[in-house]
Amino acid sequence: MRLIFMGPPGAGKGTQSAFVCTEYQIPGISTGEMLRDAVAKNIPLGLKAKEYMDQGTLVPDEVVIGLVKDRIQQEDALKGYLLDGFPRTVEQADALKKMLSELNEAPLDMALNLAVPPELLVERLLIRAQKEGRSDDTEEVIRTRIETYNQKTLPLLDYYRKEGILREVNGTGSLEEVQSKVKESL
Ligand code: ADP
Predict the structure, then answer these.
(1) Is the CB of 52 under 6 A from ligand 1?
(2) CATH of the domain at 173
């Protein structure tokens, strides 16, 4: 199973994607996590990425495309994977499609979108900010991340709808409720 997990910041992707990975026994590949890891380890790529992340804007496409290309070729990802936070732009989606075909890998099976109304997002993210203390979880940066999502990432829903692999899940409700909706959609 090769799938991408989409949804706005604060939709609860992290929690639900972990569940999907366990169900399918596939690794979860989160570009946000890979980037935060690069920042923590002071890798040059991380230093470059941090400026964008701290502002809530997107890291340049070529950086994340390179990360994903390396990662999906690792042993544990050969039979499938869940991509979380990638692709985030139409350019990234095109690059992914091209890279899978060039690597002779199977195309994506599914694009799962966790839909949450905008008014719930800021609230959820501010609560998370207090718990986790992520440096990009301030109110101003949160608003920029949501704006960036609306401009750059929302168009991907149509992209995958046209490809015929989009599944939409309503992400409102409790963790358990959303989890059972995700399960039904699989
Ligand atoms: P969120 O919880 O807001 O969805 P992520 O953990 O997925 O955030 O990503 C955090 C930050 O990392 C983003 O705001 C962005 O700066 C950067 N980032 C992550 N994935 C990508 C990507 N595919 N393209 C560009 N930037 C990315």
Answers:
(1) yes
(2) 3.40.50.300
